[in-house]
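Query protein
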Amino acid sequence: MRLTLPSLVLLGVSLLAAGCDGNEGRTALPNASLQVVHAAPNLGPVVFKRVQANATRLDYMQGAAFSFDVDTYTFNFDILDVDDSVLRTISLSATLVEGSIYFLILREVGGQPEPLLVERPATTQGAGTELEILHAATTLGAVDVYVDLEPLDLMTATARGAIDFDDVLSVPALADGNYEIVLTDASNQAIVQFQSTPVGLAGSQGLFLAIVDGAGIGLSPLALALGDSDGRTIVDSNSQSGIRVINALSDREAINIGIDDQLTPPLISGVAFATASAFELIAPGDHDLNVEPTLMPGAVDIDQAFVAEAGLFQTWLVAGSTGSMSATSFEDDFRVISGESKLRAFHGSPQNGPVAVFVVPPGTDITSIAPTSLASNGITSPNVRVAPGSYEITVAEQATGAVLAGPIAATIAADGYYGILLTDAAAGTGLEVTLLFDF
């Protein structure tokens, strides 16, 4: 499944620059605040550098904040290949001056990544929260922007302004409170593109918002993601949540999945061993996950509380065996990076401890290289970037290097999402490998 949906990145940074210096007896130079965000949807991770210092890795929609002495700098973005080597470097030179704050965004123009630097005066102490909204979404047209205390009523609200690609809209200082941010088509209030959940604003600060393409990360057509290191996200208040299940039970029984004690009928029926169900949509919020063996209706084996995050895809790995099932979840990210694919491993084998997964060209000596992925029982590995090609998959014990399964021939195409499921072997001992999704 692939989605190509626009999104928003909400980037918060203090607009009050402060002078600092760690050397006693030396006058502190004035500082300038700089916030950086990766907003190029067709790129993998990049490394931001001030010349060659402050190397900070940024994945898509991630941001970082810095405070630099006022001076002239060259800022670099190293674009990383699937093996983390540097494909190329994009640079921008700028002079940072006292009394200003800066927002540096790596966005796409005509399909190519380009940096853009926005300069704004620092806020006045006690003035409230000021917003700077930058439109960097190539898939979104011009929009009117509404920002007001909740509940925002479009019938009586007045747009703060209209912005199109590369435009910046300044919203004057806002008093403390909970606000809603709404985007509609320009000059057409009837077409709502985004309506945020309440956003709490307090104190004297500045918030930079960059409208960018969501590129399939989640279900929400638009989202507000704070560009700090916490990676917090605010999505469309009307978004649902997506949920699916992978069956890794050692006794190979099929399972039914219910939500909030509703198993008649189940939300997801008859998930066979070593398969993944389709996604089903549920309301965001607090829920209970219920799992029962298909052959034993009513014998609920899992009753586990969880939170369904609005706008996100969530996959549950059900392992163990009938009578002693366990379930762990992870967030799916279906963003496609052109010319490559994503791969992750699902460890659902209780009889085997931590493993190393190798996805390598045929004939590769795995004793001389680092594993492609590491996984422990009941845990799903992070996504790994993989180039298209022919591969062999081998699974070995982390502790000893002893091969548990493989090599297994596999082909990976571009723009795909691939899964490797590890389960107990049918014989009762050993490890079995099942290739999922786009394999």
Q: What stands out?
A: The radius of gyration is 25 Å. Residues 6-235 form one domain.
